[in-house]
Amino acid sequence: MGSNALNTSAIWGLKELLAIPGGDQIIKCIQCGTCTGSCPMAPVMDYGPRRLFALVKGGDFDEVFSSNTYWICASCYFCTVRCPRGIKITDIMYALKRMAQARGPQEKAAYMYNAFKEAVEGKGRLSELKMMQKYYKKVPMDAFKNTSLGLKLLAKGRLEFKVEPLKSLEGFRRVIEKAKQIEGQS
Amino acid sequence: MKYVFYPGCTLKTAAGYEESINATLNVLGLSIPEVEDWNCCGATAYFSLDELVALVLPARVMAIAEEMGAEVIATPCNACYATLRKARAILADEEGLKEKVNMALGEEDKRYRGKVRVRHLLDYYLDPEIHAQWKDRITHPLDSLKVAPYYGCQYSRPQVEDEDHPESPRALDRFLETLGCQVVDFSSRTACCGAAQMMAHRDACEPLVKRIINDAKQKGAHLIVSICPLCQFNLEAFQEQFHIEEIPVVFFTQLLGLAMGLSEKELGLSKLLVPFKGAF
C-alpha cells in the first residue's frame, strides 16, 4: 500500500476494531501463525487469521473486508485457546463480521446468519425450516444439494413444521427493538 | 442444587435426544422444570450481526431462570451452553453493557442479575447428587460396546469460567465408563464439525467431518457419542458422501437409557439416519 498506508478506511476500521472489548489486543499479535495452524477452515479462507491480522495491523481494511476469512470462521475457538498472546481471535472475527455488514460484498455465511435472525425474530425461537427457506431464496443452488437429505429427515420425523411462538412474543419483540435502538445510539 | 432446563430450539428435531432425556429422567423420578417461555439464545448468528441483541437474548433466558429461583441452567446443546456462559462472562466484566441489556429487558419488566450459573446437561447427569441416583440403575452394562466420545468445540471452548480441559475434556469419558462402555482414545474429541457453516460452506466442512469419522473407525469404535444436536446432525447426515462403511452417532442419554434397560423405541433410536442396529 506504500504511502497510502493510513487512508481513511484504515483509520475508521482500526478505531472501530480497537473500540470492541478485547479488540485492542490485536496490537499484541506476533505473527506466530498458531491461529492459522489451528484453524479447521483455513484451507478455504482467502487469508488465514495470521495474514488477516497482518493486514489489519497494516491498516489495509479494503483488503481485509474484501476477504472471506472472518465470514468463514466457524467459532471453534481453537485459535483463541491456543494464542500465546491471549488474543480473543474468535471475538475479533465476530467484530469484523459486524463491521462488514455496513460495507463490502455479502458472503454466503452472511445470508445464513441473516436468515437465522429473521427466523428467530418471527417467533422468538428458531424454525429450522424457516431459516432454510430464507437462506435458499438467496442461494438457490444450495437447496438442490440438500433435497435428498431433506426428504430423509422428513421420513424420520425430524423436520418441524410448526414452531410455537413465545407466549409473550409482543414483549420479546419490544425487548429486541429496544436493544437495537440503544445500539443505534451508541 | 436447583436446576432449570433450557432445551434450545434444535432439541425437538434432534434424533431421539429429547425422548431419551425424558425417558431416563422419568425412570429416575427426576424432572427439571423448563425455563418458562424461553427464547432462542442467538447462537453464533447474533454475535456476527448485532452485539447488544446477542447479549440480550441469553440474558432474557437467564433472567427468567433467576425469577424461577434457579441456581443452575442445564442445557443439552453446545451452542446454547457456549452462548449463555459467554454472555454471562461478558456481562460480569462489562457493567455498561449489563446496564444496556437491563434497559432492553425492562420492556418486559425483566432484570438480569448474573446470579444463575450455566451447565451442560452432561454435567447435570454427572452432578454427584444426580449421578448417585442412576449409577446403581445400570442393569444392562454396555461392556461389549466400543465408543468414541465426541465433545465438539463449544463444550470446552471458549474458556470463560471453570470448563473442562479446552482440547482434551474427560467428562463424557467418565459418563460412558460408568455405563460400562469401552471408551477409545479419540484424538478428534474436540475437532470441529463445521457447525452452522455446514449450511453455507458444506464443501469446507465435509472434510472436517470425514476426519472425525475416520478417526473413530480407525480406533475401532462401534459408535460415536454426541452431546449436541448440531454436532450429531453434521456427523451423521453427510457420511453417505464418503462412500465408507457408516458409523452410527448417538446421544449420551440414549446410551444411558439402554444401560438402564429401556427399549430402542423409547429412546428414539429409530430416528437415526445411520441405523443403530448392527452397530456392534
Description:
The complex is a heterodimer of chains A (186) and B (280). The radius of gyration of chain A is 19 Å and the shape is globular. Helix content of chain A is 61%, strand content 0%. The two termini of chain A are 32 Å apart. In chain A, helix 8 packs antiparallel against helix 9 (128-138). Chain A is mainly α and 186 residues long. Chain A has helices at residues 8-19, 34-38, 49-58, 61-66, 69-72, 78-82, 89-100, 108-123, 128-138, 140-145, 147-155, 169-185. Chain B has 2 domains: 3-122, Up-down Bundle (Glutathione S-transferase Yfyf (Class Pi), Chain A, domain 2); 140-271, Rossmann fold (3-Layer(aba) Sandwich), CATH 3.40.50. Helix content of chain B is 44%, strand content 9%. Chain B has 12 helices and 7 strands. In chain B, strands 5-4-6-7 form a 4-stranded parallel sheet, sandwiched between helices. In chain B, helix 2 (43-49) crosses helix 3 (51-67), helix 3 crosses helix 4 and helix 3 crosses helix 5. The mean pLDDT of chain B is 96. Chains A and B meet through helix 6, helix 7, helix 8, helix 9 and helix 11 of A and helix 2, helix 3, helix 4, helix 5 and helix 9 of B.
Distance separating the two termini of chain B: 38 Å
Amino-to-carboxy terminus distance of chain A: 32 Å
Shape of chain B: globular
**CATH architecture call of the largest domain in chain A:** Orthogonal Bundle
Provide the low-confidence segments of chain A as ranges: 1-5
The main pleated sheet of chain A reads as: none
Strand order of the largest sheet of chain B: 5-4-6-7
CATH homologous superfamily classification of the largest domain in chain A: Alpha-helical ferredoxin
Rg of Cα set of chain A: 19 Å
Query: How many separate helices of chain B?
Result: 12
How big a fraction of the residues of chain A is strand? under 5%
- Taken in chain order, the helices and strands of chain A follow as HHHHHHHHHHHH
Output the number of helix runs of chain A.
12
CATH class of the largest domain in chain B: Alpha Beta
